[in-house]
């Protein structure tokens, strides 16, 4: 038998059935939404309101399902039970998870917007491409979006899609967008608080740009696609910058809010953005301010030109590192991790340099960011492997750890191999590289926000299969433990360097495994200046096995077959009374 449009509200006993009453209200709500759409269909506000009313009807229907059936239902289930009527289903749908414990409802307005609501978020909100509903998987949500006709972002034809403007700090908003196929560049304009439009960049090939404004400004950016001489209509995005922990962070009101230590000035010639910067001329000059470090954004950032100011928090020096290279007006952004002070009120001081004037501008706090590059990269090769070592970045991101490091080996201008290790490791080992070939090596650090730039390049390093690392001292004294020893470039057997051992207080040593098949230790030393050789602190005899040849060096050898296959410490010590001893090209044969 066909269900009545409005279920019977009164049972034979005379008692009212509450779920039936609610279902009747659903139908009334649906009819109201239909009337609104019919009368005000051409008015965007009314179209959006009609979509929200449909979601309210779905919410009430799901409430009935939960009350009567103890679970949320998909759209088809609500229609089949009569909790929801077909007249509201055009561009409206709902889906529950497999157990019926949650649901997501969608309704598309005539304006192109898709509104959504869930069991946990009942007030309708605009659905964005990256919205996490907390109920459905991304794949399920994508199918549901397609059911109502997909997301229409209103982007003009040819303009960049998915333009986003995000508040990075109280002074900076960052715009990002998808690249447009065939674009020769992009033009960027922005305005603050609905003021005049300012051209940020006439043409750029980048797909991200920073916009600088003042705390609490409402910033709008528009991005045009350039194709040859043509230009598209713009995509637009808007964001409101948060308030600043610092008073007058860009020195636009002179030094208002800052406490001066000696005669600090302002400068209108050199500034990062806006009209002024602080001019700190000597190491005895400084500006400071008492602030509370935000818990969610504990990274102190500032822009500087010329000498780098020293940063102190409660009179304690803190390390800073470059996090954005020289850009606007020659200023470089530097950052410091103040997560140890998150939520605390502290005094932040910027002190000048004794070498030259420091220009300081746009001081802010922002959230964690990608780390800076690893430091002091070195590499050694022995036994067919290359081992790369490094020091942690000065700035690891701001209260978050480095999760991984990636070392890359390059030869002939092309990447030959890469090795990824966990963030608590500071070495990486390459195997399978070509013996004898020269490699340069770099390292990047990654945290949950992003990846650092490459470290400085180390090398080239020649991959060798010998037991000794750096056997010819071509990579300085890396791999060797030393006492007093230094390098010589004027006395060497081959290559460009040797180790100089002046007397018995000068020595070099290395831990090696003596090859079982080739246990004869050989090395080159200048004639009549023979270093003493010890294995595990025991003297071993050496003999000349090749006469003086290149640059007056003689080859000497020692039989270490008694140590074949064993790991030992081999030490070379300078001689007494014969002047400098030069050691080069140590190996096993």
How would you describe what is shown here?
The termini are far apart. A 6-stranded antiparallel beta sheet has the order 14-15-23-17-21-20, with no helix packed on it. Strands 32-33-41-35-39-38 form a 6-stranded antiparallel beta sheet, with no helix packed on it. The chain is elongated and about 105 Å long. A hairpin with a 6-residue loop joins strand 1 (about 90-95) and strand 2 (about 105-110). The relative contact order is 0.06. Helix 1 packs antiparallel against helix 2. With about 600 residues, it is mainly β. The chain has 4 helices and 41 strands. The longest helix has 26 residues, at about 45-70. It folds into 5 domains: about 20-145, no CATH class; about 165-240, Immunoglobulins (Immunoglobulin-like, Sandwich); about 260-365, Jelly Rolls (Sandwich), CATH 2.60.120; about 375-460, Immunoglobulins (Immunoglobulin-like, Sandwich), CATH 2.60.40; about 480-589, Jelly Rolls (Sandwich).
The chain-level structural class is: mainly beta
Beta-strand content estimate: 35-45%
Number of strands: 41
Low-pLDDT stretches = 1-23, 25-42
Number of domains: 5
Rg estimate, integer Å: 36 Å
Helix count from the secondary structure assignment: 4
What average pLDDT do the residues reach? Answer: 89
Q: Distance between termini?
A: 98 Å
Strand order of the largest sheet: 14-15-23-17-21-20
Helix content: 10-25%
Instruction: Tell me about the largest β-sheet.
Output: 6 strands, antiparallel
Mass-distribution shape: elongated
Oligomer: single chain
């Amino acid at each position: 038998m066909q269900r009545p449009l409005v279920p019977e509200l009164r049972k034979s006993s005379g008692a009212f059935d509450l779920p039936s009453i609610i279902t009747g209200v659903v139908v009334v709500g649906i009819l109201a939404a239909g009337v609104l759409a019919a009368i005000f269909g051409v008015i965007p506000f009314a179209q959006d309101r009609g979509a929200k009313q449909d979601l309210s009807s779905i919410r009430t229907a799901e409430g009935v399902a939960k009350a009567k059936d103890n679970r949320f239902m998909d759209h088809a289930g609500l229609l089949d039970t009569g909790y929801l009527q077909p007249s509201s289903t055009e561009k409206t749908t709902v889906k529950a998870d497999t157990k019926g414990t949650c649901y997501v409802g969608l309704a598309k307005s005539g304006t192109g917007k898709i509104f959504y609501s869930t069991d946990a978020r009942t007030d309708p909100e605009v659905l964005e491409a990256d919205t996490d509903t907390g109920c459905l998987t991304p794949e399920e949500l994508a199918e549901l979006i397609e059911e109502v006709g997909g997301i229409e972002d209103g982007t003009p034809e040819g303009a960049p899609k998915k333009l986003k403007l995000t508040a990075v700090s109280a002074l900076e908003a960052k715009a990002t967008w998808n690249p447009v196929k065939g674009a020769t560049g992009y033009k960027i304009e922005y305005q603050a608080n609905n003021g005049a439009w300012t051209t940020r960049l006439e043409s750029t090939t980048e797909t991200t740009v920073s916009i600088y404004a003042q705390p609490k400004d409402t910033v709008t950016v528009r991005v045009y696609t350039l194709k040859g001489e043509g230009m598209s209509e713009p995509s637009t995005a808007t964001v409101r910058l948060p308030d600043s922990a610092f008073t007058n962070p860009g020195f636009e009101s002179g030094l208002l809010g800052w406490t001066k230590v000696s005669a600090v000035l302002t400068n209108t010639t050199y500034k990062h953005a806006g009209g002024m910067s602080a001019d700190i001329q000597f190491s005895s000059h400084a500006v400071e301010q008492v602030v509370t470090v935000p818990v969610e954004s504990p990274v102190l950032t500032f822009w500087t030109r010329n000498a780098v100011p020293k940063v102190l928090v409660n009179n304690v020096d803190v390390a800073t590192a470059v996090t954005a290279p020289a850009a606007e007006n020659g200023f470089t952004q530097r950052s410091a991790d103040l997560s140890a002070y998150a939520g605390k009120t502290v005094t932040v001081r910027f002190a000048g340099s004794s070498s030259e004037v420091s220009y300081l501008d746009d001081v802010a706090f922002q959230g964690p960011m990608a780390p800076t590059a690893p430091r002091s990269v070195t590499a050694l090769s022995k036994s067919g492997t290359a081992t790369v070592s490094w020091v942690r970045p000065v700035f690891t991101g701001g209260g978050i750890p480095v999760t991984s490091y990636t070392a890359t080996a390059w030869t002939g201008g092309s990447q030959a191999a890469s090795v990824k290790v966990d963030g608590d490791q500071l070495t990486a080992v390459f195997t399978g590289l070509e013996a004898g070939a020269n490699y340069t090596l770099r390292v990047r650090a990654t945290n949950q926000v992003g990846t650092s730039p490459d470290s400085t390049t180390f090398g080239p390093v020649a991959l060798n299969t010998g037991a000794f690392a750096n056997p010819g001292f071509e990579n300085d004294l890396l791999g060797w433990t030393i006492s007093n020893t230094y390098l010589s470039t004027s006395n060497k057997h081959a290559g460009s360097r040797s180790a100089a051992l002046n007397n018995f207080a000068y020595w070099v040593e290395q831990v090696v495994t003596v090859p079982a098949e080739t246990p004869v230790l050989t090395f080159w030393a200048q004639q009549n200046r023979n270093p003493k050789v010890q294995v595990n602190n025991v003297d071993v005899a050496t003999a000349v096995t090749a006469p003086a040849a290149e640059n007056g060096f003689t080859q000497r050898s020692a039989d270490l077959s008694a140590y074949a296959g064993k790991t030992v410490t081999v030490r070379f010590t300078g001689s007494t009374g014969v002047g400098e001893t030069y050691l080069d090209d140590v190996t096993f044969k």
